[in-house]
């Protein structure tokens, strides 16, 4: 959050607002970096995780494959009936017609879990269930509805072609067929293919562990008793959702007071146990915004201050192969920064393809959107009847993102983008949004 959140209650004079403002120390931002530079520096400092783990195939949906898998055998590896009927030799039916039917002797039956022990000889057939192994000597299957059974024989009145109604070995995929590539997000079909080959487990990349450390004297943990001048902390919940959507593991912490010693201790602990640390609040230039002084102690400061609205008071540092990012405390500023700035970092950490959004365009609805001189402007968007509408009405309220499934990034300027104009749009990929296809 910015320093203004603390006005009138942090300095002396009995909490007098005038005295507090008069004594509040402010430090100016350094040179603001553009949104492109901020994102590029973060991504350049991001190292994809090398850790892997082995998980059951049944638990691997959405995980990222850490090695390539090929079929160790053809599937199916035996000729397999695809209909209920009779397995037989097609040559025995070549002369069959209504005037000259052919009778075949039923010499056994095969259920799905069985195989027939003998060879089918001329003039014989075997009753077979869907999934049953085709008996040796048989080369086709005729369905029950196309024959007439008389005791231990069946009568056919038409020829049956070879290779009817069964899958030969490798019909699904042959031995050595590519099942899954390294870096591929595993789908239901991928996992079904692995299981069909008898592969019980798969090696996947570990999920990024992301610590969230909110700080601010005014913050209450949800569930605590409401008190005047205090607000409930909400960034833990919203940021955790984005982390989960990007395949990570969120590790939210209870809110800390504006105590630099406690904040630094929490950051060091989180850095030792996490792949990425997000601190929310205390990132601006006020007297009690401690992150700008603390983060350089951990490593190289990448930037402090982005030329963007909302989300200007954002900073980041690289601590070896890990990142610490100081996020604004205001809920809307924090969450939109998570979308356009941190989401690509999460994807790169976890080997996930793409930045987490799809670039497209949309026609602006009845709302007009203003650019900001010197700053890019993030505009959260909802969609109705194929048109985009801004949801923004304030950085400090989470309802500014109600219904938003995409955002626009307007360049610095003084124009007002009016209704009816087509604008570039970043559509959030599922599950954060329906993607571009749902919005046209």
> Which geometry do the CA atoms define?
elongated
Largest sheet: 6 strands, mixed
Q: How many β-strand runs?
A: 28
Q: Distance between termini?
A: 36 Å
User: Mind telling me which CATH architecture of the largest domain this is?
Assistant: 3-Layer(aba) Sandwich
Q: How would the blueprint of this fold be written?
A:
Elements: H1 17-23, H2 35-44, E1 52-56, E2 69-70, E3 80-81, E4 85-88, E5 102-110, E6 124-128, E7 140-143, E8 148-150, E9 153-156, E10 166-167, E11 178-180, H3 188-196, E12 201-205, E13 209-214, E14 219-220, E15 231-232, H4 235-245, E16 249-252, H5 260-273, E17 276-280, H6 291-294, E18 300-304, E19 308-309, E20 315-319, E21 322-327, H7 331-349, E22 357-364, E23 369-370, E24 376-384, E25 387-390, E26 406-410, E27 416-417, E28 422-428
Parallel strand pairs: 5-6, 13-16, 13-17, 14-15, 17-21, 19-24, 22-25
Antiparallel strand pairs: 1-12, 2-11, 3-10, 4-6, 4-7, 5-9, 8-9, 18-20, 20-21, 22-28, 23-27, 24-25, 24-26, 26-28
Describe, in plain words, how this protein is organized in 3D.
Helix content is 17%, strand content 28%. The protein folds into 4 domains: 25-50 and 206-349, Molybdenum Cofactor Biosythetic Enzyme, Chain A, CATH 3.40.980.10; 52-75 and 171-205, Alpha-Beta Complex (Molybdopterin biosynthesis moea protein, domain 2), CATH 3.90.105.10; 80-167, Beta Complex (Molybdopterin biosynthesis moeA protein, domain 3), CATH 2.170.190; 357-439, Beta-clip, CATH 2.40.340. A hairpin with a 2-residue loop joins strand 20 (315-319) and strand 21 (322-327). It contains 7 helices and 28 strands. Helix 2 packs parallel to helix 7. The radius of gyration is 32 Å and the shape is elongated. The strands form 8 sheets. The protein has a 6-stranded mixed β-sheet, with no helix packed on it. A 6-stranded mixed β-sheet has the order 16-13-17-21-20-18, sandwiched between helices. It starts with 16 loop residues before the first helix and ends in a 12-residue tail after the last strand. With 440 residues, it is of the alpha/beta class. It has helices at 17-23, 35-44, 188-196, 235-245, 260-273, 291-294, 331-349; strands at residues 52-56, 69-70, 80-81, 85-88, 102-110, 124-128, 140-143, 148-150, 153-156, 166-167, 178-180, 201-205, 209-214, 219-220, 231-232, 249-252, 276-280, 300-304, 308-309, 315-319, 322-327, 357-364, 369-370, 376-384, 387-390, 406-410, 416-417, 422-428.
């Amino acid at each position: 959050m910015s320093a203004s959140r603390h006005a009138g209650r942090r300095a002396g004079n009995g909490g007098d607002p005038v005295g507090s403002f008069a004594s509040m120390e402010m430090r100016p931002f350094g040179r603001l970096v553009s949104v492109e530079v901020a994102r590029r520096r973060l991504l350049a400092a991001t190292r994809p995780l090398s850790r892997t783990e082995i998980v059951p195939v049944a638990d691997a949906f959405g995980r990222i494959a850490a090695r390539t898998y090929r079929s160790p055998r053809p599937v199916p590896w035996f000729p397999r009936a695809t209909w209920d009927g009779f397995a037989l030799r097609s040559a025995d039916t070549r002369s069959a017609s209504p005037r000259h039917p052919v009778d075949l002797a039923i010499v056994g039956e095969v259920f799905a879990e069985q195989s027939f022990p003998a060879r089918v000889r001329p003039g014989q057939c075997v009753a077979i269930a869907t999934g049953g192994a085709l008996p040796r000597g048989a080369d086709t299957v005729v369905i029950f509805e196309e024959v007439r059974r008389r005791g231990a024989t069946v009568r056919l009145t038409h020829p049956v072609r070879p290779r009817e109604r069964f899958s030969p070995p490798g019909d699904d995929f042959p031995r050595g067929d590519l099942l899954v590539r390294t870096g591929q997000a595993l789908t239901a079909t991928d996992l079904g293919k692995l299981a069909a080959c008898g592969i019980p487990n798969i090696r996947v990349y570990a999920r990024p562990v992301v610590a969230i450390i909110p700080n601010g004297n005014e913050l209450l943990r949800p569930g605590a008793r409401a008190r005047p001048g205090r607000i409930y902390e909400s960034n833990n919940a919203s940021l955790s959702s984005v982390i989960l959507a990007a395949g990570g593991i969120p590790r939210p912490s209870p809110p800390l007071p504006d105590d630099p010693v406690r904040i630094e201790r929490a950051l060091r602990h989180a850095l030792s146990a996490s792949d990425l640390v997000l601190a929310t609040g205390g990132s601006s230039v006020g007297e009690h915004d401690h992150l700008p002084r603390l983060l350089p102690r951990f490593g190289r400061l990448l930037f402090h201050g982005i030329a963007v609205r909302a989300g200007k008071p954002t900073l980041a540092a690289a601590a070896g192969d890990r990142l610490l990012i100081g996020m604004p405390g205001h809920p809307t500023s924090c969450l939109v920064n998570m979308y356009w700035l941190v989401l690509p970092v999460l994807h790169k950490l976890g080997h996930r393809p793409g930045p987490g959004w799809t670039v497209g365009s949309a026609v602006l609805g009845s709302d007009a959107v203003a650019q900001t001189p010197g700053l890019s402007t993030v505009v959260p968007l909802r969609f109705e009847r194929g048109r985009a509408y801004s949801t923004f009405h304030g950085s400090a309220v989470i309802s500014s993102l109600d219904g938003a499934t995409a955002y626009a990034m307007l360049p610095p300027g003084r124009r007002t983008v009016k209704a009816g104009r087509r604008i570039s749009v970043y559509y959030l990929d599922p599950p954060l949004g329906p993607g571009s296809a749902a919005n046209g």
